[in-house]
Design a protein that fits this description.
Elements lengths: L1 H11 L3 H42 L4 E4 L3 H14 L11 E3 L4 H10 L7 H7 L5 E5 L6 H12 L3 E7 L14 E5 L4 H24 L4
Parallel strand pairs: 1-2, 1-3, 3-4, 4-5
Length: 213
């Protein structure tokens, strides 16, 4: 109860104008990072678009994975491809490896949580597919294991990371694409990841179905 009262008192001590200024600061920081990151990330994102479009064109699929907010991003991306992004077109083959609760809990219970994505890749992945591996830190153990499983099956990887790329960076092959946000704060990295995912969706549609304004 004392903690609850203390938190409410702290809330009353922060005027709305100060809260609004804090919010505006987040907008400014996000916009500045996106401006700076554009020059650095445009080329690797374009490379990732080419890899994904080539896989889809030849009958492959895109599998996406990540944890927490990155899991939500993986699901968001898969939904944009299977349903549609901004234009009417045929469904595209994509799935998030984060959504099957029975498989996730089975693998985590019988083995380790580290393998929840890798075992799905071993079961479902084929050469010609693409793995979209999302980790803001670049150090997620289950994403690292997924990348290793992908490489073992001849699957190209598109990695979305931040903070220097963590352990994922040295694990990637020359054939892979690495979109590494030049920032260390998780929420800023996630904000740029979302923009990158929308760029991927738009670019895939442009390559497969023609550029739209």
């Amino acid at each position: 109860m004392a903690l609850s009262i203390q938190m409410k008192q702290s809330h009353r001590d922060l005027p709305r104008a100060a809260l609004a200024e804090r919010v505006a600061g987040h907008f400014a920081a996000s916009a500045e990072l996106k401006r700076v990151a554009a020059a650095e990330l445009a080329t690797p994102i374009a490379r990732a678009i080419e890899l994904m479009a080539a896989a889809l064109r030849t009958g492959g699929k895109i599998m996406a994975c990540g944890n927490g907010g990155s899991a939500a991003d993986a699901q968001h991306f898969a939904a944009e491809l299977v349903n549609r992004f901004e234009t009417e077109r045929m469904p595209l083959a994509a799935l998030a490896l984060t959504t099957d609760g029975s498989t996730l809990t089975s693998v985590a219970n019988d083995y380790r949580f580290e393998y929840v994505f890798a075992k799905q890749l071993q079961a479902l992945g084929r050469s010609g597919d693409v793995l979209l591996a999302i980790s803001t830190s670049g150090n997620s153990a289950n994403v690292l294991a997924a990348i290793q499983a992908a490489h073992e099956r001849g699957i190209v990887v598109v990695a979305l990371t931040g903070n220097g790329g963590g352990k994922i960076a040295p694990l990637l092959d020359p054939a892979d694409a690495h979109v590494c946000v030049p920032h260390g704060r998780t929420m800023r990295i996630q904000e740029v990841h979302l923009l990158a995912l929308h760029c991927l969706c738009d670019g895939i549609d442009a390559l497969l179905f023609g550029a739209q304004q």
